[in-house]
Amino acid sequence: MIFSGSEAVHSETLHVYIDNNNVNEDLDEHKFEITRIMTKDNNPTYKYLGILMDPNFSFRQHVSSISSKLSKALYVLRRVKNCLPDKALLLLYYSLFHCHLIYASEIWSSAPEHLINQLFIKQKAAIRIIAKAKYNAHTQPLFRKLEILPLFSLILQQKLVFFQSVIQKRAPPAFDNIWFTNREYRLLQIDDNNYRELRNDGDYFIPYSRTQTLGRAPIFVLPHEWNQLPPDIQIVRNTREFKIKLKDFFINQIPENFLCTRLFCPACNIPQ
């Protein structure tokens, strides 16, 4: 598979072979061509550790796969919502629905926003079922009441928890020396004797991304989102405490007193 946004690259003919010949042998029957996965294939994906990778790096097929699993979970929630108490519904949500949203979200969330929004719509449907609200009820107060993070905040939490593990040297060694602070990056460019202290030295350096698709990749997004965190959250070292503080931070960003500003909103303008 070749990852590229260029159709010219995808249409280019390329053959790759495995040569099983011994030394000083050149037998054709010992050479095997590796089948290339291309965008024009019926299923242009390769499944790696549960993630469907496609040549355009759009994760369209993976999001579609998650959406299918969420639809099945929604069916179960709808069938049992009148039989189970609220606490049981919440447990069912976390066991059947939430797990699909967080698995490898640091990776597949590089998909375009309109694809991720399809999953967010299903999450809002699940929240309405758990809260036993109307099918078109506003979900902001429901998310706050149930203390469940909306999808985009949930993805951001997963990303920041991973980035914290990198900073605290708890991530696999393969992630060492990928991200640098502004001070570390500038010291690589100039002599230490000529370095001047700057206010953003402690922030992480954000590389330049040439395209929007590339800009959604973790290598660009993670340092940017980390730099936006309040200092009292950045300094937390314990992972569990960090996750709790992050969740509280995102929950508090949801307005406590929700006010709908939509004209002729069908959920608010209920006939008396």
Structure description:
The protein is mainly alpha-helical and about 270 residues long. Among the domains are: about 60-155; about 165-250, no CATH class. It contains twelve helices and four strands, in the order H-E-E-E-E-H-H-H-H-H-H-H-H-H-H-H. It has helices at about 5-10, 60-80, 85-100, 105-110, 115-130, 140-145, 150-165, 180-190, 210-215, 220-225, 230-235, 240-250; strands spanning about 15-20, 30-35, 45-50, 50-55. The strands form two sheets. Strands 1-2 form a two-stranded antiparallel sheet. A hairpin with a 2-residue loop joins strand 3 (about 45-50) and strand 4. Helix 2 runs antiparallel to helix 3 (about 85-100), helix 2 runs parallel beside helix 5 and helix 3 (about 85-100) runs antiparallel to helix 5 (about 115-130).
Q: What's the quick description here?
A:
With 272 residues, this protein is mainly α.
Secondary-structure map:
Layout: H1 7-11, E1 16-19, E2 31-34, E3 46-48, E4 51-53, H2 60-80, H3 86-102, H4 105-108, H5 113-131, H6 140-146, H7 151-167, H8 182-189, H9 212-215, H10 218-227, H11 231-234, H12 239-252
Antiparallel strand pairs: 1-2, 3-4
Helix pairs in contact: 2-3, 2-5, 3-5, 7-10, 7-12
Which sequence of SSEs, written as H and E, runs from N to C?
HEEEEHHHHHHHHHHH
Number of strands: 4
Number of helices: 12
Oligomer: single chain
Q: What overall form do the CA principal axes indicate?
A: globular
Q: How helical, in percent, are the residues?
A: 40-55%
End-to-end distance: 60 Å
